[in-house]
Give the backbone structure.
Amino acid sequence: MAACQLRCYHCGVGAALPNRAVNLQQARERHGDLVDRFLPALMRADPLADDVAHDFASLGRTRSRHLLDLALRDGIAATPDAPDSLRALFEQLDHVPVWVDWTAVDRASDVLFRTGLFGGTVLGAKSLVTGYCSPGGNKPLVFSGQLEHKKRIGYRLAETCRFVADVCERGGMRRFGPGFATTVRVRVMHATVRHLIAESGQYDEAAWGVAINQHDMVGTTMLFSLAFLEGVRAFGFIFTPQEVDDFLHLWRYNGWLIGVEPELLPTSEASAARLSDLIAMTQGQPDDDARMLVRSFIESPSYTVAEDDPKAQATARRHVALGFGFARSLLGEEMADALHLPRTPTRFVLPGIHRVLSRVERVGRRVPGYDRRLAQAGRGYWKQTIELGLAGRMASFMPPTQLEGLR
């Protein structure tokens, strides 16, 4: 199939779009020329990081990782033999945009941590699962093969939790903070995957757009920000307008740092919601890859349980049932049906939690120390969850050397 054409309101010239972009007319009726201004991002990547990935491929994994770690720890000046591409990348990274408000970034920390267990549930059952649903955006993950190796899924989730916790930790996004370093490593990892995909010759750009493109990077940023807020609100958490603005501001800076073009990043909850709706309207229904990724992810608690341990198996089955129930509640019936998620009785758990937790929140948020105690407990939960998932390993965010999901 030929790539569809996009009307440009500014120059009148049609721009090629991948076939994954659907429902354009309906989207224009709702969102106007935002469609034509945003969707070309499907065909753009991250040139600065892509140049680094190209040079790193020649340097080898050990040498390139050493240079990146040294630049992150001591600054690019400490790497006199670094390639020009890495210097150009850090010239951008070391510049803090004038719109960054460090006070807001620091305040945003407690938005994540005070949600504790519920925030972790939302990250898995809504944020990550929603990302898997995109029939074009999920292809780099399919090519990587990460969710086909079932025993690695727990580690992958723990790595993602490490990324989110590092970003949201107070001071984490400062130049030498853990969130800054983790974000840059993820950016280089994305560029490496793009490089490997391009070399494979098996990726259909006309169908799916550029691998890990600007459009999908914006979408991922909003999964960790807007979608996360929507999910924890569904559990009953209450946030002030200032807290919402702070949290979105934190992830706006993270999006910029991870390589998203600044003009694409939403600046308010309203603009984020509009962009999220546009993405959902034009991405199409989940495909077989989406269903495979989601099912593998939700069923992951059962993959590492010993066959001769009935108690552990029963616990794993309960966790899987809860996962399906929470995913159906958080994604909505239409999306859950498209993913072929089972209708487990646990889908009725979330409304009950909301009734109780929303009442607790309305009272508790007026009590001095309530938020501080919740955030403290939440930090403990995230720390323990990450340690259990990593099982003694480091969250390395190491770029792959090959694509294990190639068919």
Remarks:
- The chain is about 65% helix and 0% strand.
- Confidence is low (pLDDT under 50) at residues 7-14.
- Strands lie at 4-6, 15-17.
- The first strand starts at residue 4 and ends at 6.
